[in-house]
Fold this sequence. Notes:
Chain A has 1 helix and 8 strands. Chain A is mainly β. Chain A folds into 2 domains: 8-52; 55-125. By secondary structure, chain B is an alpha/beta fold. Chain B has 2 domains: 4-117 and 211-232, Peroxisomal Thiolase, Chain A, domain 1 (3-Layer(aba) Sandwich); 122-208 and 236-383, Peroxisomal Thiolase, Chain A, domain 1 (3-Layer(aba) Sandwich). Helix content of chain B is 38%, strand content 18%. A 9-stranded mixed sheet of chain B has the order 3-2-4-7-1-8-11-10-9, sandwiched between helices. Chain B has a two-stranded antiparallel ribbon with strand order 5-6. In chain B, strand 5 and strand 6 form a beta hairpin. Chain B is globular. The mean pLDDT of chain B is 97. The A-B interface holds A 8, 12, 32-34, 40, 59-72, 74, 77, 79-82, 88-93, 99, 104, 115, 118-121 and B 118-121, 123-124, 127, 133-141, 143-144, 147-149, 151-152, 155, 196-202, 243, 245-248, 252.
Amino acid sequence: MTERVINLKSFFEDARAGRLTGIRCGGCGELAIPPKEFCASCQKRDWQPVPLAGAGTIVSFTVIRVAPRGRGGEVPYAVAVVKLEEGLSLLGRVVDIPFEALRAGLPVRFRPVQIDSQTVIGFGPA
Amino acid sequence: MRRVAVIGVGVTKFGKHDRTSAELFAAAAADAITDAGIAPSAIQALYFGNVTGGETERQLHMGPLAATLLGLPTVPTTRFENACATSHVAFRHAVMEIASGVSDVVLVGGAERVLNVPTESATEFFAYCSDASLEQPAGLTFPGVFALIARAHMDKYGTTEEQMAHVAVKNHRHGVLNPKAQFQKEISLETVLKSAYVADPLKLFDCCPFTDGGAALVLASEEVARRYRRPIWVLGTHAATDTMFVHEKRDLSRVTATERAALGAYRQAGKTPTDVDVAELHDCFTIAEIVATEGLGFFEPGTGGLAAEKGWTSLGGKLPVNPSGGLKAKGHPIGATGAAQIAEIVTQLRGEADRRQVDGARTGLTHTLGGNTATVVVSLFGCD
């Protein structure tokens, strides 16, 4: 078994420190988050970690008003799929942007968000 | 591969029950066996679906329990879990067990019970069907997933909240005609549009309810089926998977697993979308029905909203969709849903759907979607 270059644990440790890290396929250049074994595009197993700038634009978003158990105190909150400038997308919590300003194409920037001592992917104003 | 038929169907009333999931399934299964007119001892295997039993009832290993409560304690059982597509996945495997020649008669279905826990708990347990590393911590819920899809569909095609509301109104109108439905009450467009947002742009009445219920089917090989009541043939059944991660979907306005599952099922059946007379498809949220009618090839991409608005998917329309009331009005006990959809199509093709009968229906389709649009099964049925 080959050791993964990054795993979910190291991905979130990086994220907590403000660094967004993806992986790039040595075969076809495909970028991915989270880490995988085989590349879904070319089937190679040859990944290298790649730092991502964290800048992107909103693809789609929603404002959650009914939350799962234990999260009721957080509503309403926005979640968005963001396309990063490197070309891959990532889902995260939207912070510090008024709901009425949210739209597809809005530039945003990655930032870690701490919720109940857990690191969550977040996106704030660009 | 041998031909496979559905020879018996059983569905409990959908709604709130004080019976356990295993009891609900056993009741539906006994009805299905009685409907088939076959001896209980003819059942050679049980394929059983349930999703949240560990969380809501502290009950796992539910297959043997269901078999025991049914009175068939020695039948081999397998438990399936593929989120909301659970019992349609189980169905496909049951078909394969018969088609391959391993068994002649297989019982398949599922049950779910969630109304015994608070809504916020049920919301949490259903969210377990999304990814636990990135999506659950961000607070993504299932209405949230379909809200992201709805927004993408609205941005790309101009689909409106009113068009989505038409799906809810239509399925509630159908539900009135189904005595097993959780809701048997018509609702107005205004009721849907004025209901509170759950996850913008989806409102309360865009969402299917939490539901308790069970559903079961008796499947048989052609040789056995010919000896019992009018068989409804499985013409094709195909499963497709897509990435679990919402952020990895190439186009949020589409469900590519639906498109691939449909392609496989149509090919297997030698049918095209225009051959379908009646469909039961996965309307967990109103937008899901719109996107499914496009992905199944009934309407061009981007026109599913218009189809709902124009009444093309209503009973009496071009292609009646969800005559049972769908998940929206009939209810959505997630482990039972796929089998319940098939039971409705079998009932339609037998011509036994009473007031909600689609006249002259000879080819029917079922479509069930699980989780973050990651699991889809599509099946086609026909009659002699």
